[in-house]
Specification:
With 106 residues, the protein is of the alpha/beta class. It is built from 3 helices and 3 strands; from the N terminus they run αβαβαβ. The chain has one domain. It is elongated and about 75 Å long. The relative contact order is 0.15.
Length: 106
């Protein structure tokens, strides 16, 4: 076996070992906060998005939903993501006056 072939086989074996570790990684749980109930049209879209994310990831990603302001009032949803309490949040700029001056309507 030539040194070059040994080198290639060595790195191929390392790649196989690492790919096994990646696929065997712990599942990822995302926390999704939104302030409306599950009957709302936007909630239906978020539920569909979460289900597709779980399906497309082969179950490696799960989404734990917090509808109806379960985490707290809509005014705090931006902060939930900023501080890491939630991974994804849906909120309205209009419910957070003064927080986002660039999106303000005149």
């Amino acid at each position: 076996m030539t040194p070059r072939l040994r080198f290639v086989l060595f790195w191929a074996a390392i790649a196989l070992l690492l790919s096994g570790r990646i696929t065997g990684a712990q599942p990822i749980e995302l926390k999704l906060a939104y302030f409306v109930g599950d009957q709302h049209a936007m909630s239906q879209w978020l539920i569909k998005w979460a289900n597709n994310l779980e399906k497309d990831s082969g179950g490696r990603i799960t989404v734990k939903r917090f509808p109806g302001s379960q985490m707290g009032p809509v005014q705090q949803h931006y902060d939930f993501v900023r501080t890491g309490q939630a991974d994804v949040a849906w909120f309205l700029h209009g419910a957070t006056p003064g927080r986002f001056p660039q999106s303000r309507m005149y």
